[in-house]
Amino acid sequence: MPRSDSRAAAFADLHRARPGFVMPNAWDAGSALVLASAGFRAIATTSAGIAFSLGKQDYQVGDARLAVSRDEMFARMREIAEAVPLPVNGDLEAGYGDSPEEVAETIRLAVDAGLAGGNIEDKRPRADLYDESLAIERIRAAREAIDRSGSRFVLTARTDALQSDSAAALAAAIRRANRYREAGADCLFAPGPGDVETIRTLVKEIDGPLNVVMGLGTAQGNANGLLAAGVARISLGGSIARSALGFVRRCAEELRDRGTIRFAEMQIAQSELNSLFAKARVRGPRPESSVDRA
């Protein structure tokens, strides 16, 4: 079994295990290797982190020149997938196109890039949710593309219905998630309010493994509590990447205002990073059994 297929199979198995798992998000090979070395069983990419590392905007893009292209995003996601032996879930945004055919093409690229899974959103940046029937067709097209590839690639359908202030938002998120599941999604993702009671309702009413994101505009929450509530998968979105940039800014301000470099106390030793990255580059493909145990 090719390495990418083995990792997709291992990733699919993680979604059936209980308790669930935490999947932090990387934005380049270095951050991916550091996260992998911490012992997580899978990692994900973050469109926000990748965009910010390129000096570009994410989601609310005010100028087309500041948008990350699909080619740019896939170059970085491939870099991440090649750097670590773990399953990598790709942030595929809204599929880089409105039509089911465009979504299917993005899925084919994701499989070819060595990703073990990927998210497809039902909302375009700066726009409303896709019409529900079209959103379902987009997920169905993604499922068909995966089946034709012969991969165990894990398809996650994300609905942004909970981002609305509407009283009917929760019901809409549950309905959409279940219809996406019927259309072939393996995992469902409804970012929004993170209180445990709402999460428990989603776990109960959605017929499939649920992904919950932590750090969406808040530093509150506890992954252990969410896993205990029945969540199958927890991601962090761009939280770690934004925190890293926040640290860079605090370093710059300390140096500018005080002339000191106390921030250097938190650095990882160069010898440790050299060792970590050297091991990653020389190990080559790991045996399938090693991936399955990761």
If you had to describe this structure to a student in words, what would you say it looks like?
There is one protein chain. With 294 residues, this protein is α/β, with parallel strands linked by helices. It has a single domain, classed as Phosphoenolpyruvate-binding domains (TIM Barrel, Alpha-Beta Barrel), CATH 3.20.20.60. It has helices at 3-14, 29-37, 47-53, 70-83, 100-112, 132-149, 169-183, 196-205, 223-228, 239-258, 270-282, 288-293, and strands spanning 21-23, 25-26, 43-45, 88-91, 117-121, 154-158, 187-189, 210-213, 233-235. Strand 7, helix 8 and strand 8 form a beta-alpha-beta unit. The protein is globular, with a radius of gyration of 19 Å. The two termini are 17 Å apart. 41% of the residues are buried. Residues 285-294 have low confidence and may be disordered.
Major sheet, described briefly?
9 strands, parallel
CATH homologous superfamily placement: Phosphoenolpyruvate-binding domains
| Uncertain spans | 285-294
Binned strand content:
5-15%
The shape, in one word, is globular
Succession of helices and strands: HEEHEHHEHEHEHEHEHEHHH
Fold topology:
Layout: H1 3-14, E1 21-23, E2 25-26, H2 29-37, E3 43-45, H3 47-53, H4 70-83, E4 88-91, H5 100-112, E5 117-121, H6 132-149, E6 154-158, H7 169-183, E7 187-189, H8 196-205, E8 210-213, H9 223-228, E9 233-235, H10 239-258, H11 270-282, H12 288-293
TL;DR?
By secondary structure, the chain is an alpha/beta fold.
